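Final report, Chapter 2: Outcomes

The project's central promise was a pipeline that accepts a single protein chain and returns its three-dimensional structure in a standardized token representation, suitable for archiving and comparison. That pipeline is now operational. To close this chapter, we reproduce one record exactly as it appears in the project archive, with the input sequence first and the structure output second.
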Amino acid sequence: MIATVFDTLVWALAFSLCVPGLGGRPARAVAVLLGIALAISIPLADSSLMGALRGLFAGLSVASLVVLTALFVARVQRGGVFAGGERVSIAVLATVVGVLFYPLALGLGPVDPYAWGYGGATLALIAGGVGLLAWMAGLRVLVLCLVLALPAWRMQLLASPNLWDYLIDPLLAIGALIALIVMALKSARRVSSRPEQPGVKRGAA
């Protein structure tokens, strides 16, 4: 029950970020969020959109909940949630972990990192170390991802007993990769649109 409600909230947050016109309108944003959560839960032909999403992506992580909530709040408040450069840091970390983790977890290598998440101390210590570095760097959202994921795993609040499933999921990894591509394109567009410096000609040696 908890896992179903959890996944419904995460997907509702993800879909609500695609809805325009929520900036500066908290009441409307909350109404849209609740409406989406209800819509994806409506039974359709012995299932629901939520059931199809869970079948496709399995369970979602605590990190996804934290990141999407931060994005939702930042959009409604028009900023003030992420520290400077934190969006890029989270996107890079999630992309790198996803690219390295999922192929190996699917058996495309000599090591199965997914096995590290079953109760051993190694992965928990690594996550704690990353959380400490994030705290020292002032990356508040990333710290919150780890601060909430570790105790949630210890209490087994979600369907999976594996720590990896509390730290990352395919939605987060794919979303992070897309975000990096979009940020890179925007950065390239800003550079190309800058006016030329006085006295400097294009093509000058």
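Archive annotation: Residues 103 and 157 are 26 Å apart (CA to CA).
This record, like all others produced under the grant, will remain available to the consortium after the project formally closes.
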